[in-house]
Each structure stands twice: as structure tokens, then as C-alpha cells.
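Supplementary Methods, section 5.1.

A reviewer requested that the exact input to the structure prediction be made available. We therefore reproduce it here, unchanged from the version used in the analyses.
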Amino acid sequence: MNAISELQQSYFLLKIGIISHQTCIDWAMERLLSNQEGDDFDIVFLAITMNHDEVLPLVEKIIDRYIGLATIDDELVAGKYIALLHQAYQAGKETVASLDEKFTKLYYSLGYPNWLVMLSRNCEYATDIPDFLKPFEDEFEYVANLWVSAESRNEFESRYSRDLSNQHDIKYC
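The structure derived from this sequence is encoded cell-by-cell as follows.
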């Protein structure tokens, strides 16, 4: 299944409350319209479900069948999502305020990963303190660029430098 990574990302974002159930239903509908569902009746059921309580179990079943639910690395999925958010921010589709809510949910749901500390903090501060906009944007670009090229969390972590992240702060002279 070509689009399973999209569903994997939607699953994670649904679990932490960033997206609605409808995103997963739309994913299944797109698979049906593209004739990519094969003989997978769970995708058909997901596409036609009207009960949002059924969405998460169906998505889990589909992911487990194709890649294994236990193999999902939430930090990798979150990192790839941050890379997409960076593109959306650069295109003017996201704002500091809209990102703040998303980063806060990511930060808490991932258990406060070290690599997300400065990004989350700088975004929060930039919503109220204009001087934090540049440090936020610098950190956002740094973290997003690392995630774009990373194929795993270990690969990201081997390149990430907390010392460099700490430099993305207001410079007091």
C-alpha cells in the first residue's frame, strides 16, 4: 500500500487530538476512488463509517496489517509532520499561533523530547514577544530540515545538536 505512511501520520495526529476522525475517513475514500483498496474491506468500512468511535480501531487494524502497529515510531511521525508544518508556515498556511497549539500537543504527547524543547518554547514565546520570532523561525528551519532528510529517529538524533538549538534564542547584549 503506497499511502500507508499518510494513514500512519493521520493515526498519530488523531490520537493526540490535532486532526479529526474525518481525515482518516477521507484517506480511505481517496483509496477507494483511486482503486487502491484491493480486497481490504477494513478500508471500505473506514470509508463508509458514520460512527467516529469505529475510526481508530479500523485505522489500527489497517496499519497493523500493512506495517505493524508496534513498529510506529511516534517521534519519527511527529518529525515528518513538523517538516510538513514548516512548508505550510513558509507558504503562509500556518501561523505562529496555529503552530503553538500543535507543538504543545506534540511536546506533551511525546513525553517532552529533548529535540522539541526549544522549538516548542520559542513558538510559545513568539506568540506574545515579537523578538522571539527570529529565534523561533531559526529553530523551526533547523529541526524541520533535519527531519526532512532523516529516515529514522536514530538518524535524526545523530545529527541533532542541542547546543545548536540553544543558540536559537534572543541575544541580549
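DSSP finds ten helices and no strands in the chain. These observations are discussed further in the main text.
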